[in-house]
Amino acid sequence: MEHLPTRTFRVTRADLVRYAGAAGDFNPIHWSDRVAASVGLPGVIAHGMLTMALAGRAVTAWVGRADAVAEYGVRFARPVVVPDDPEGAVLTVDGVRRPADAAGLTRVDLTVSCAGEKVLAQARALVRWPVETGDQG
Predict the structure, then answer these.
(1) Number of domains the chain contains
(2) 76-109 pLDDT, tens digit each
(3) Helical spans, DSSP H, in the chain
(4) How many Å apart are CA 59 and CA 4, to the nearest integer?
(5) What distance in Å separates the CA atoms of residue 95 and residue 73, rounded to the nearest whole number?
């Protein structure tokens, strides 16, 4: 078992606008405080798939290539509230690398949090970790 370096990602309201345009998801809970409050949210929230993608970016950074990811999945535990300020929200991604299995796949367990709260649950990836001299998976 190996603890991987923590990765952080800042998410601002401008990021939400860019993501909405790219994804075609213009749900007002991702940009309107009024609408977010009217449905019981604590404020504007990041798109769940954006949160998942940022955690996935940590995995690809650790393994060194996007095509090394064989499987990736999460459960959404709580929303990422993005304040209307220049700092936005900070997503923290920690990972634990497990030994490779017989097929050569390495499981990476992720802990993804924002403001001290876990936002993704059961977050894990199966990757083909590059083999280095002395590396046993």
Answers:
(1) 1
(2) 999 999 999 999 999 999 999 999 999 999 999 9
(3) 13-23, 33-38, 48-63
(4) 10
(5) 14
Residue 17 lies in a domain: no
Of 29, 119, 16, 117, nearest in space to 76 by CA:
119
Average pLDDT, the chain: 95
- 60: phi then psi, degrees, rounded to nearest 5: -65, -30
The CA distance from 53 to 69, in Å, is 13
Residue 58 within a domain: yes
Domain assignment present for 70 = yes
Against a cut of 0.70, is the pTM above it?
yes
Confidence of residue 132 (pLDDT cuts 50, 70, 90): low
The CATH number covering residue 60 comes to 3.10.129.10
The whole-number pLDDT of residue 13 equals: 97
